[in-house]
């Protein structure tokens, strides 16, 4: 590691939010910025492994934290989180959907007025180069290219799903990232072409790697914060060469909704009783650290393809539906998508036996705003031990109903004659089971899985909100020199996959901190 150990800003985590933040802050040549990443950093496409280049598969094995999460009291699941420069954006499914204006106006109504739709829209525009749409809502100068699937690029299953949705009366959407979009249309995707994934690492870093005031420190994990009587003064890191201290005027955690609270807890910032139980000295009693973990619930109608009807090399999702749940009527709080292939070795592994097949295609069903909340807590003070993640899914009747109704909608969408004709069989579900309330509830309980959109574990809010961890400028309440900028600050869930919103957070926090 370089001897350069004093910085203006240390950013912990080169992920979806950390990289844009580092890029914007280091644009000021007088500011010395360090970007620390636990996983590897691949500077050029030639050095980047195939699993990260290929946008048609998620990278769930090679660049992953290997976390496990409790779903329900009787069931755990693998909980994927990218461990590489680019974070989740480097391993994910390339669905690049914006959240709704109303999501941000809710954040503002909770006292976070710096995050209203009118304040965040310029950052959504600044991060993108929309290859299909312009006008008052889209940008063309940003690092992340966004394109939508053309009709001729859809697999037969996707085209049939699309047709079936239109026949079912779902409105056609050209641009799912228009603020009022609701209906069915081609998914916007963070790609330049049909195959390659564009991550924050591959989009933002190439033009700025040569900046002398930016130091990227990869393969190095932050174990805890250095805190003195005045506040946070730097970080302790673990790398192949052992433990080291790096000092800074300001530390910004961008380690994600699992990583950021874990670092704070190990540093004595969190619920005091939990910290004392682990023998950690309390620096600041903040009950919201790790509390309020919120992810979206998902299940699916799984179909085993007929021989010859597989689309295993194609993109996972191409056509998506955003609509209201029957029980809420709330704009876009449900999401359906035709997934060309799930590898049951890594996704929904509990369905493998029932499927009697290694891979399936599916109508995916996602509830965007379940009410159940979970938590991230420490299992040990040892930074090498994974935190305890409890998703606490389906804890309310409301959440069960969202997926019960969702499975029935997914079933209907899977039964258009052409799509159904591609399948040898549907896994578990059939015409009589789908009408049986208790059987569908049972199906939901046994199949529910996370959508890998965790937020809310260091949530933003005013100092008088007992569970708020950061203020609306993302400064940690009562801890000088410490900020958070990643998905964990979201005060409420958004009605979209969270990737684009998290990149926007990196951009927005850079602006809020530029003159601080
Ligand atoms: C498999 C998968 C697929 C997804 N697909 C999509 C999709 O298609 N569309 C979409 O919108 N969203 C998707 N998401 C969700 C979404 O992209 C992310 O959850 C979100 O972008 C999180 O951003 P973040 O910056 O908070 O965290 P991350 O992007 O996860 O970044 C955190 C970074 O911090 C690093 N880090 C953590 N702890 C430490 C430490 N102690 N020291 C140093 N570094 C550390 C991590 O290695 C990581 O690189 C997906 C998520 C996953 C896991």
TrEMBL record:
<keyword id="KW-0274">FAD</keyword>
<dbReference type="InterPro" id="IPR007867">
    <property type="entry name" value="GMC_OxRtase_C"/>
</dbReference>
<protein>
    <submittedName>
        <fullName>GMC family oxidoreductase N-terminal domain-containing protein</fullName>
    </submittedName>
</protein>
<dbReference type="Pfam" id="PF05199">
    <property type="entry name" value="GMC_oxred_C"/>
</dbReference>
<comment type="similarity">
    <text>Belongs to the GMC oxidoreductase family.</text>
</comment>
<dbReference type="InterPro" id="IPR012132">
    <property type="entry name" value="GMC_OxRdtase"/>
</dbReference>
<dbReference type="InterPro" id="IPR000172">
    <property type="entry name" value="GMC_OxRdtase_N"/>
</dbReference>
<feature type="domain" description="Glucose-methanol-choline oxidoreductase N-terminal">
    <location>
        <begin position="256"/>
        <end position="270"/>
    </location>
</feature>
<dbReference type="InterPro" id="IPR036188">
    <property type="entry name" value="FAD/NAD-bd_sf"/>
</dbReference>
<dbReference type="Pfam" id="PF00732">
    <property type="entry name" value="GMC_oxred_N"/>
</dbReference>
<keyword id="KW-0285">Flavoprotein</keyword>
